[in-house]
Specification:
By secondary structure, the protein is of the alpha+beta class. The protein contains 3 helices and 8 strands, in the order αβαβαββββββ. A hairpin with a 7-residue loop joins strand 6 and strand 7.
Length: 185
């Protein structure tokens, strides 16, 4: 697995948890946010990635964003239910290749450090810090900073994310809890 894929998978997993209001990794108590439809905006900036020029050109020709070229914005609509909350809680605790440490949480937010290794070895490691603020039961703001190293990449790849999620109402309006709507910007 490449370092970009390791970062991407880790970032998506963390973002999915954060966009739904962040999962407290130890308390099974009621979520600090409302259940229902949430609109999330994630802005990701990646630096330190080196791609061969022919790959960059191919990505541009396909209309795909080039990692590291400029910040990427993803907007989502997701449906948070009590069942989905519990599932995210369990999934966050059971990731074999990621370890959470220095977890701090209270009614106003949570923070944690994480280290993720590529599955089956491979020499890719991503280390980061997540900070979430439950501004209200209807608004969440968070940041994530990760630095990844690889045996194939001379300098670390740095990923910074900002996550904002706003409650839209109890009706999920056809959005499945299992399949958020994703809109790339």
């Amino acid at each position: 697995m490449t370092i970009v894929k390791t970062i991407f998978c880790t970032a998506i997993a963390v973002t999915g948890v954060m966009l739904a209001g962040a999962v407290p990794l130890r308390a099974q108590a009621a979520p600090p946010v409302k259940m229902g439809l949430w609109h999330g905006t994630t802005v990701t900036k990646m630096t330190g990635i080196t791609l061969p020029p022919e790959v960059v050109e191919k990505m541009k020709a396909m209309g795909r964003p080039v990692p590291g070229a400029e910040p990427q914005t993803i907007e989502t609509e997701s449906c948070l239910t009590p069942e989905k909350w519990k599932e995210m809680f369990a999934r966050a605790q059971n990731r074999e290749n990621c370890k959470i440490s220095n977890l701090k949480q209270d009614a106003s937010g949570m923070s944690a450090d994480m280290v993720c290794e590529s599955p089956n070895g491979g020499g890719n490691t991503a280390r980061g810090h997540v900070q979430m603020s439950f501004l209200t039961t209807e608004k969440v703001h968070g940041t994530m900073h990760m630095e990844a190293t690889s045996v194939r990449q001379p300098q670390p790849i740095v990923v910074d994310m900002t996550i904002d999620s706003v409650y839209q109402g109890a009706d999920c309006k056809g959005v499945s809890p299992d399949t958020p709507k994703v809109i790339m910007k």
